[in-house]
Amino acid sequence: MLSSEKIKEFTDMVCRQIRWKKAHSSVSREMEDHIIDQRDAYIQDGAEEADATDKAIAQMGDPVAVGMQLDGVYRPKPQWGMLLLTGSLVALGVLIQVFLSKDNSLSIAPSSTVRHGVFAAVGLLFLVITYFADFTFIGRHPKAVYFSVLALSAVIFASSELRNGQAYYATTCSLLFPAAYSGIVYSMRGKGYRGILLCGLAFLPPAVFTVLVPSMTGLLLFAVGGLVLLSIAMAKGWFGVNKRHGFLPVALFAVGGLIWFLFYLSREPYRWERFQTAFHPELD
User: Fold this and answer.
1) Whole-number Å distance between alpha carbons of 104 and 107
2) pTM over the 0.85 mark
3) Strand-pair partners of 171
């Protein structure tokens, strides 16, 4: 591979991690200049061009990690208009609830309206927090986040009341699993097929948890989210393997999970009926 191609491959990998596409050209140009300057310095010291290029690129560090760090630097301005629009729509929903509660023909209990308003306010608060939060914390401490989420879920599961045979409060835990799992996927970059295997193993505890709750909706959300995360990581070349070969174990894992899911549903008449109704509402 020519030196220029190696440099471009490195800078392209860095830019793939930066979400703000307008920054790609300046970041790429700046990094290429730095690598070329360092390469020329190695050549002046007597190194061959190919070896000098490899050393200069290696000195830059892991392209994925560098790109993630730069992504935190080159962040677009907050979309205040979109945030205000979201808040306005949520407030409108609460007002509609209040209006309906005053209509005798469509009466809604006042306590239900208050509860809806509280949930909407809490939801908006968490939206703002997550929007401005530094999500790279998950990438810096993936194992701590992953096992903390599992431990918290276990505590909630053990203390949750049962409603219709389901650990009611534990059903929401599945919403945390994709974020925790994303850190594990990120930590496996550059580890080849071993990293893909470990990602598959890390997928199992959250999936088993959703089955124990049980929450088929949570299982589907996590399963689809996890497979999307793995596919994106594979497409970005995080594992350092041939992309076509790397997708094979992911596809086999997905097919195996789907077969097990359908088998599990077939043994639960009530859940199988709900699953069929989702695709054929006329059956209900």
Assistant:
1) 5
2) no
3) none
